[in-house]
Amino acid sequence: MIKHSEIKEEISLFKHGFHKPNNIENFDFSSLLENAKKIDANSDDQKSGYSTDIYEYLDEESKTKLKQLSLRLLNYKIVKKYLLFPSVLKIRVLKAKFNKDAFEDPSHAMLWHRDLDDVFSQLKLIIPLNSNSKENGAFSVCSKKIATRDQILIDNIMINKLASSKDNYRNEDIVRVSDETFKKKFSNFIFEFSGDKSELLIVDTNRCYHKGGLVLFEGLERYMIHFHIGSPTNSFHPNMNLKNKNLLKITHYFLGRFVRMLVKIFFFITNKNMNSKKIII
């Protein structure tokens, strides 16, 4: 298993696809955690394979502080160096509880996968609000070295499990990998993000296989901040939709779509279509 202390901090994002800098300083996380604890999240939410996003239910002071922090992180030298014209696309505050069904049969984000939000890289900046451990669901990421952009890992366990399923939602897990298979194959490339509040992990989720952690015991909870930072061509970029039409958004939309098309054509010409080569593991 990768020990991040053994990786040179400045090059780890470029070499492995993730980076763990120093803790976030000069930011009061305690009031944010207190506010988050007051917001109820049903453990049944975890059945879908995702934690509950409680950001919209936070008080305005907490939201303002998070927006200010996101702008600070956006100006990190390593973020600007890694992404072209980066911008904050989404802020999430995730709350997770123990759910027996999710624990016994994890799905979606709780399985190993890569995101497909852009043809280029994107970053998720992850900060625990409470102590983060394996017991309450540590986030895990694997070095991007294990698979190139034109390769996708297919798990025999998931193929057999979903062979007779008629659940369209669960059938999407056919392109995800179980923890059992992934750790058996790639244990030496995995970094498990266990740490105290205010620590920071930067992950290129388009290039790195990763998975959300499952809360393992009744009564435990996990609180985590996700800052989603991407380039102008990211599908979650506000200007990549035309709900509120204006000249700037229309120009951005068509330019972004044009650039994405050019990249896909390049992948096609070089016979490296994204996720085109299936690797059965």
Can you characterise this structure?
The chain has one domain: Jelly Rolls. With 281 residues, the chain is of the alpha+beta class. 30% of the residues lie in helices and 19% in strands.
Give the name of the CATH superfamily: q2cbj1_9rhob like domain
Strand content: 15-25%
Class by helix and strand content?
Answer: alpha+beta
Provide the spatial order of strands within the biggest beta sheet: 1-8-4-10-3-2
Overall mean pLDDT? 90
Tally of DSSP β-strands: 11
Shape designation: globular
**Main β-sheet description:** 6 strands, antiparallel
Q: Kindly provide the name of the CATH class.
A: Mainly Beta
Describe the structure using short key phrases:
alpha+beta, 281 residues, three-stranded antiparallel sheet, Jelly Rolls, 30% helix, globular
Short description:
The chain has a single domain (4-150, 177-236), classed as Jelly Rolls. Helices cover 30% and strands 19% of the residues.
Walk me through the topology.
Blueprint lengths: L8 H8 L1 E2 L10 H8 L14 E2 L6 H15 L2 H6 L4 E11 L2 H5 L17 E7 L10 E4 L8 E4 L1 H7 L5 H4 L7 H8 L3 E4 L7 E3 L6 E2 L9 E10 L16 H23 L7 E4 L1
Parallel strand pairs: 6-11
Antiparallel strand pairs: 1-8, 2-3, 3-10, 4-8, 4-10, 5-7, 5-9
